[in-house]
Amino acid sequence: MSNLGSYPPAFRRQNKERSQKYDPVDEEDSLDLIPLIDLQCINLDKLGEACKEWGLFRLVNHQVPLTLMNQLQEQAKKVFSLSFESKQGLFTSPVSYFWGTPALTPSGTALSRGPNNIHWVEGFNVPLGQLSQFQADEDPMLHSFRLLLEEYGRHMGRLAKTLFEAMVKNLNLDSEESKSNLSESTGYVRAYRYPGLPETEALGMELHTDSSVLSILNQDIVGGLELFKDDKWFKVKPIPGTMIINLGDMMQAISNDEYMSAKHRVKVNKQVERFSICYFVFPEEGSVIRSSNYKPFTYSDFRAQVQDDIKTLGYKVGLERFKIHQD
To answer: Which domain of life is it from (predicted)?
Structure first.
Protein backbone atom coordinates (compact mmCIF):
# COMPACT_ATOMS: atom_id res chain seq x y z
CA MET A 1 0.00 0.00 0.00
CA SER A 2 1.71 3.20 -1.18
CA ASN A 3 1.59 6.62 0.53
CA LEU A 4 0.45 5.19 3.85
CA GLY A 5 -0.16 8.61 5.40
CA SER A 6 -2.94 9.29 2.91
CA TYR A 7 -4.95 6.29 4.11
CA PRO A 8 -7.21 6.01 7.17
CA PRO A 9 -5.28 4.57 10.13
CA ALA A 10 -7.42 1.42 10.10
CA PHE A 11 -6.34 0.74 6.51
CA ARG A 12 -2.67 1.07 7.35
CA ARG A 13 -2.92 -1.74 9.87
CA GLN A 14 -4.44 -4.10 7.29
CA ASN A 15 -6.14 -6.07 10.04
CA LYS A 16 -7.51 -9.12 8.26
CA GLU A 17 -9.98 -9.88 11.02
CA ARG A 18 -11.67 -6.51 10.51
CA SER A 19 -12.07 -6.60 6.76
CA GLN A 20 -14.92 -7.70 4.54
CA LYS A 21 -13.53 -10.86 2.96
CA TYR A 22 -14.82 -12.65 -0.07
CA ASP A 23 -15.12 -16.38 -0.50
CA PRO A 24 -13.28 -17.64 -3.60
CA VAL A 25 -15.92 -18.75 -6.10
CA ASP A 26 -16.05 -19.64 -9.76
CA GLU A 27 -15.78 -16.55 -11.92
CA GLU A 28 -16.30 -16.12 -15.64
CA ASP A 29 -14.27 -13.85 -17.86
CA SER A 30 -17.07 -11.76 -19.34
CA LEU A 31 -15.08 -9.50 -21.66
CA ASP A 32 -17.18 -10.61 -24.63
CA LEU A 33 -20.42 -11.23 -22.72
CA ILE A 34 -21.25 -7.83 -21.23
CA PRO A 35 -23.84 -6.23 -23.57
CA LEU A 36 -22.61 -3.25 -25.57
CA ILE A 37 -24.83 -0.26 -26.38
CA ASP A 38 -23.91 2.47 -28.88
CA LEU A 39 -25.34 5.79 -27.68
CA GLN A 40 -25.28 7.28 -31.18
CA CYS A 41 -27.56 4.59 -32.62
CA ILE A 42 -29.39 2.95 -29.74
CA ASN A 43 -30.87 -0.40 -30.66
CA LEU A 44 -33.96 -0.60 -28.44
CA ASP A 45 -34.16 -4.38 -28.65
CA LYS A 46 -30.55 -4.77 -27.49
CA LEU A 47 -31.06 -2.16 -24.79
CA GLY A 48 -34.17 -3.93 -23.50
CA GLU A 49 -32.42 -7.29 -23.45
CA ALA A 50 -29.45 -5.87 -21.56
CA CYS A 51 -31.71 -4.24 -18.96
CA LYS A 52 -33.83 -7.38 -18.50
CA GLU A 53 -31.09 -9.98 -18.47
CA TRP A 54 -28.09 -8.14 -17.05
CA GLY A 55 -29.10 -4.85 -15.46
CA LEU A 56 -25.75 -3.63 -16.75
CA PHE A 57 -24.13 -2.79 -20.07
CA ARG A 58 -21.08 -1.16 -21.63
CA LEU A 59 -21.65 2.21 -23.33
CA VAL A 60 -19.65 3.36 -26.36
CA ASN A 61 -19.81 6.50 -28.53
CA HIS A 62 -21.00 8.45 -25.49
CA GLN A 63 -19.13 11.60 -26.58
CA VAL A 64 -17.65 12.27 -23.17
CA PRO A 65 -14.15 13.46 -24.08
CA LEU A 66 -11.50 10.89 -23.22
CA THR A 67 -9.25 13.73 -22.07
CA LEU A 68 -11.90 14.78 -19.52
CA MET A 69 -12.32 11.22 -18.25
CA ASN A 70 -8.56 10.83 -17.82
CA GLN A 71 -8.03 14.29 -16.32
CA LEU A 72 -10.71 13.70 -13.71
CA GLN A 73 -9.18 10.34 -12.80
CA GLU A 74 -5.71 11.88 -12.46
CA GLN A 75 -6.96 14.84 -10.44
CA ALA A 76 -8.88 12.51 -8.12
CA LYS A 77 -5.66 10.53 -7.54
CA LYS A 78 -3.88 13.73 -6.52
CA VAL A 79 -6.63 14.65 -4.07
CA PHE A 80 -6.66 11.14 -2.62
CA SER A 81 -2.89 11.41 -2.08
CA LEU A 82 -3.41 14.20 0.47
CA SER A 83 -2.90 13.16 4.08
CA PHE A 84 -5.85 11.50 5.81
CA GLU A 85 -6.07 14.42 8.24
CA SER A 86 -6.10 16.96 5.39
CA LYS A 87 -8.93 15.17 3.61
CA GLN A 88 -10.97 15.05 6.79
CA GLY A 89 -10.46 18.78 7.30
CA LEU A 90 -10.94 19.97 3.72
CA PHE A 91 -13.98 17.89 2.77
CA THR A 92 -16.91 18.39 5.11
CA SER A 93 -19.72 20.12 3.20
CA PRO A 94 -21.11 19.98 0.58
CA VAL A 95 -18.33 17.68 -0.73
CA SER A 96 -17.62 15.07 1.93
CA TYR A 97 -14.90 12.49 2.55
CA PHE A 98 -15.73 8.97 3.74
CA TRP A 99 -13.99 5.66 4.29
CA GLY A 100 -14.68 2.11 5.44
CA THR A 101 -18.18 1.95 3.99
CA PRO A 102 -20.06 3.17 0.88
CA ALA A 103 -23.24 3.67 2.96
CA LEU A 104 -23.77 7.39 3.59
CA THR A 105 -26.41 9.60 5.16
CA PRO A 106 -28.15 12.28 3.01
CA SER A 107 -25.56 14.79 4.25
CA GLY A 108 -22.72 12.58 3.00
CA THR A 109 -21.38 11.24 6.30
CA ALA A 110 -20.59 7.55 6.63
CA LEU A 111 -23.07 5.25 8.33
CA SER A 112 -21.05 3.42 10.97
CA ARG A 113 -21.23 -0.34 10.69
CA GLY A 114 -18.77 -1.21 13.45
CA PRO A 115 -15.05 -2.09 13.51
CA ASN A 116 -15.70 -5.66 12.35
CA ASN A 117 -17.40 -4.61 9.13
CA ILE A 118 -14.83 -2.45 7.34
CA HIS A 119 -14.89 -2.19 3.57
CA TRP A 120 -11.61 -1.36 1.86
CA VAL A 121 -12.73 1.83 0.16
CA GLU A 122 -12.47 5.56 0.68
CA GLY A 123 -14.11 8.28 -1.35
CA PHE A 124 -15.45 11.75 -1.97
CA ASN A 125 -19.19 12.36 -2.20
CA VAL A 126 -20.03 15.25 -4.55
CA PRO A 127 -23.63 16.55 -4.82
CA LEU A 128 -23.40 18.24 -8.23
CA GLY A 129 -26.21 20.69 -7.48
CA GLN A 130 -24.22 22.08 -4.54
CA LEU A 131 -20.77 21.98 -6.10
CA SER A 132 -20.63 25.77 -6.49
CA GLN A 133 -20.67 26.01 -2.68
CA PHE A 134 -17.45 24.00 -2.42
CA GLN A 135 -14.81 26.47 -1.29
CA ALA A 136 -11.87 25.49 -3.48
CA ASP A 137 -10.72 28.72 -5.15
CA GLU A 138 -7.70 29.24 -2.89
CA ASP A 139 -6.23 25.80 -3.62
CA PRO A 140 -5.24 25.21 -7.28
CA MET A 141 -5.61 21.41 -6.93
CA LEU A 142 -9.11 21.60 -5.45
CA HIS A 143 -10.14 24.36 -7.87
CA SER A 144 -9.15 22.20 -10.83
CA PHE A 145 -10.97 19.24 -9.26
CA ARG A 146 -14.15 21.27 -8.95
CA LEU A 147 -14.01 22.56 -12.55
CA LEU A 148 -13.50 19.04 -13.90
CA LEU A 149 -16.39 17.71 -11.79
CA GLU A 150 -18.69 20.46 -13.06
CA GLU A 151 -17.91 19.67 -16.70
CA TYR A 152 -18.12 15.94 -16.07
CA GLY A 153 -21.47 16.32 -14.32
CA ARG A 154 -22.97 18.06 -17.35
CA HIS A 155 -22.00 15.13 -19.57
CA MET A 156 -23.37 12.62 -17.06
CA GLY A 157 -26.72 14.40 -16.96
CA ARG A 158 -26.90 14.22 -20.75
CA LEU A 159 -26.12 10.50 -20.80
CA ALA A 160 -28.60 9.67 -18.04
CA LYS A 161 -31.42 11.59 -19.69
CA THR A 162 -30.78 10.04 -23.12
CA LEU A 163 -30.63 6.50 -21.76
CA PHE A 164 -33.64 6.92 -19.49
CA GLU A 165 -35.78 8.29 -22.31
CA ALA A 166 -34.85 5.26 -24.41
CA MET A 167 -35.79 2.93 -21.56
CA VAL A 168 -39.13 4.70 -21.04
CA LYS A 169 -39.86 4.28 -24.74
CA ASN A 170 -38.87 0.61 -24.59
CA LEU A 171 -41.17 0.01 -21.61
CA ASN A 172 -44.08 1.85 -23.25
CA LEU A 173 -44.35 4.18 -20.27
CA ASP A 174 -45.98 7.60 -20.52
CA SER A 175 -43.11 9.98 -21.31
CA GLU A 176 -44.70 12.97 -19.54
CA GLU A 177 -45.53 11.04 -16.38
CA SER A 178 -42.04 9.53 -16.36
CA LYS A 179 -40.18 12.84 -16.50
CA SER A 180 -40.16 13.21 -12.71
CA ASN A 181 -38.71 9.72 -12.31
CA LEU A 182 -35.26 10.98 -13.23
CA SER A 183 -34.04 14.43 -12.23
CA GLU A 184 -30.60 15.78 -13.10
CA SER A 185 -30.79 17.98 -9.98
CA THR A 186 -30.40 14.85 -7.83
CA GLY A 187 -27.19 13.73 -9.51
CA TYR A 188 -24.01 13.25 -7.56
CA VAL A 189 -20.54 11.89 -8.25
CA ARG A 190 -18.48 9.67 -6.03
CA ALA A 191 -14.76 9.22 -6.52
CA TYR A 192 -13.44 5.97 -5.02
CA ARG A 193 -10.01 4.65 -4.10
CA TYR A 194 -9.40 1.00 -3.18
CA PRO A 195 -6.00 0.09 -1.67
CA GLY A 196 -3.80 -2.69 -2.95
CA LEU A 197 -3.72 -5.45 -0.32
CA PRO A 198 -1.19 -8.20 -1.11
CA GLU A 199 -1.79 -10.13 2.10
CA THR A 200 -5.53 -10.63 2.04
CA GLU A 201 -8.48 -11.40 -0.21
CA ALA A 202 -10.82 -8.56 0.62
CA LEU A 203 -13.77 -6.60 -0.65
CA GLY A 204 -13.90 -2.91 -1.40
CA MET A 205 -17.67 -3.25 -1.62
CA GLU A 206 -19.73 -6.30 -0.74
CA LEU A 207 -22.55 -7.67 -2.90
CA HIS A 208 -25.17 -4.93 -3.28
CA THR A 209 -27.52 -3.11 -5.63
CA ASP A 210 -27.45 0.65 -6.15
CA SER A 211 -30.46 2.64 -4.97
CA SER A 212 -30.33 4.94 -8.00
CA VAL A 213 -32.28 5.04 -11.24
CA LEU A 214 -29.01 4.76 -13.18
CA SER A 215 -25.34 4.63 -12.21
CA ILE A 216 -22.61 5.51 -14.72
CA LEU A 217 -19.11 4.22 -13.98
CA ASN A 218 -15.77 5.45 -15.29
CA GLN A 219 -13.20 2.93 -13.99
CA ASP A 220 -9.45 2.80 -14.39
CA ILE A 221 -7.58 -0.12 -15.98
CA VAL A 222 -7.07 -2.11 -12.75
CA GLY A 223 -10.42 -3.89 -12.65
CA GLY A 224 -12.22 -5.49 -9.71
CA LEU A 225 -15.89 -4.88 -10.50
CA GLU A 226 -17.90 -8.10 -10.66
CA LEU A 227 -21.55 -8.73 -11.57
CA PHE A 228 -23.62 -11.50 -9.99
CA LYS A 229 -25.93 -13.15 -12.52
CA ASP A 230 -27.38 -16.65 -12.86
CA ASP A 231 -25.58 -17.71 -9.67
CA LYS A 232 -22.20 -16.79 -11.18
CA TRP A 233 -19.76 -13.93 -10.84
CA PHE A 234 -18.81 -12.15 -14.06
CA LYS A 235 -15.75 -9.94 -14.21
CA VAL A 236 -16.56 -6.55 -15.74
CA LYS A 237 -13.23 -5.81 -17.37
CA PRO A 238 -12.24 -2.19 -17.91
CA ILE A 239 -11.98 -1.03 -21.53
CA PRO A 240 -10.53 2.48 -21.82
CA GLY A 241 -12.92 5.06 -23.18
CA THR A 242 -16.08 3.11 -22.39
CA MET A 243 -18.59 3.61 -19.58
CA ILE A 244 -20.35 0.95 -17.52
CA ILE A 245 -24.05 1.62 -16.97
CA ASN A 246 -25.86 -0.26 -14.26
CA LEU A 247 -29.51 -0.05 -13.33
CA GLY A 248 -30.47 0.67 -9.74
CA ASP A 249 -33.42 -0.18 -7.52
CA MET A 250 -35.46 2.82 -8.65
CA MET A 251 -35.26 1.71 -12.28
CA GLN A 252 -36.34 -1.80 -11.35
CA ALA A 253 -39.39 -0.43 -9.52
CA ILE A 254 -40.24 2.05 -12.32
CA SER A 255 -40.15 -0.82 -14.82
CA ASN A 256 -42.37 -2.95 -12.57
CA ASP A 257 -39.56 -5.51 -12.28
CA GLU A 258 -39.21 -5.87 -16.05
CA TYR A 259 -35.69 -4.45 -15.74
CA MET A 260 -33.26 -5.67 -13.09
CA SER A 261 -31.16 -3.78 -10.60
CA ALA A 262 -27.60 -5.06 -11.03
CA LYS A 263 -26.11 -7.08 -8.17
CA HIS A 264 -22.41 -6.33 -8.01
CA ARG A 265 -19.34 -6.09 -5.80
CA VAL A 266 -15.78 -4.75 -5.96
CA LYS A 267 -12.73 -6.88 -5.13
CA VAL A 268 -9.53 -5.30 -3.92
CA ASN A 269 -6.50 -5.86 -6.14
CA LYS A 270 -3.51 -7.59 -4.55
CA GLN A 271 -0.88 -5.42 -6.24
CA VAL A 272 -2.15 -1.94 -7.00
CA GLU A 273 -4.69 0.69 -6.02
CA ARG A 274 -7.92 1.00 -7.99
CA PHE A 275 -9.66 4.29 -8.77
CA SER A 276 -13.13 4.87 -10.17
CA ILE A 277 -15.60 7.69 -10.70
CA CYS A 278 -19.31 6.92 -10.49
CA TYR A 279 -22.34 9.12 -11.21
CA PHE A 280 -25.70 8.37 -9.59
CA VAL A 281 -29.07 9.93 -10.45
CA PHE A 282 -32.46 9.59 -8.75
CA PRO A 283 -36.14 10.53 -9.10
CA GLU A 284 -37.25 14.10 -8.47
CA GLU A 285 -37.85 14.97 -4.82
CA GLY A 286 -41.42 13.97 -3.96
CA SER A 287 -41.93 11.98 -7.16
CA VAL A 288 -44.06 8.94 -6.34
CA ILE A 289 -43.15 5.63 -7.96
CA ARG A 290 -46.30 3.66 -8.73
CA SER A 291 -46.19 0.02 -9.72
CA SER A 292 -48.49 -2.98 -9.47
CA ASN A 293 -45.67 -4.84 -7.69
CA TYR A 294 -44.91 -2.17 -5.08
CA LYS A 295 -46.68 0.12 -2.65
CA PRO A 296 -46.44 3.76 -3.81
CA PHE A 297 -43.23 5.30 -2.48
CA THR A 298 -40.80 8.16 -3.05
CA TYR A 299 -37.05 7.85 -3.17
CA SER A 300 -36.96 9.64 0.20
CA ASP A 301 -39.15 6.89 1.65
CA PHE A 302 -36.83 4.26 0.19
CA ARG A 303 -33.64 5.95 1.41
CA ALA A 304 -35.02 6.34 4.95
CA GLN A 305 -35.91 2.65 5.07
CA VAL A 306 -32.49 1.61 3.77
CA GLN A 307 -30.73 3.76 6.35
CA ASP A 308 -32.87 2.35 9.15
CA ASP A 309 -32.15 -1.21 8.03
CA ILE A 310 -28.40 -0.59 7.88
CA LYS A 311 -28.45 0.88 11.38
CA THR A 312 -30.59 -1.88 12.91
CA LEU A 313 -29.76 -4.94 10.82
CA GLY A 314 -26.34 -4.04 9.45
CA TYR A 315 -27.37 -4.41 5.81
CA LYS A 316 -29.71 -3.04 3.12
CA VAL A 317 -32.97 -4.88 2.49
CA GLY A 318 -34.07 -2.65 -0.40
CA LEU A 319 -37.08 -3.10 -2.65
CA GLU A 320 -38.38 -6.11 -0.74
CA ARG A 321 -39.55 -3.67 1.96
CA PHE A 322 -42.00 -2.10 -0.51
CA LYS A 323 -43.10 -5.23 -2.36
CA ILE A 324 -46.80 -6.11 -2.51
CA HIS A 325 -46.91 -9.79 -1.61
CA GLN A 326 -49.72 -11.74 -3.18
CA ASP A 327 -51.42 -14.28 -0.91
So the answer is: Eukaryota
Task: Say what the pLDDT of residue 320 is.
Answer: 96
Please identify which of the residues 158, 274, 290, 303 carries the catalytic annotation: 274
Q: Has 274 been annotated as catalytic?
A: yes
pTM (two decimals): 0.93
> What mean pLDDT is predicted for residues 109-118?
72
Query: How much of the chain exceeds pLDDT 70, in percent?
Result: 91
Q: Which of 200, 19, 169 is nearest to 99 (CA)?
A: 19
Q: Is the pLDDT of residue 89 over 60?
A: yes
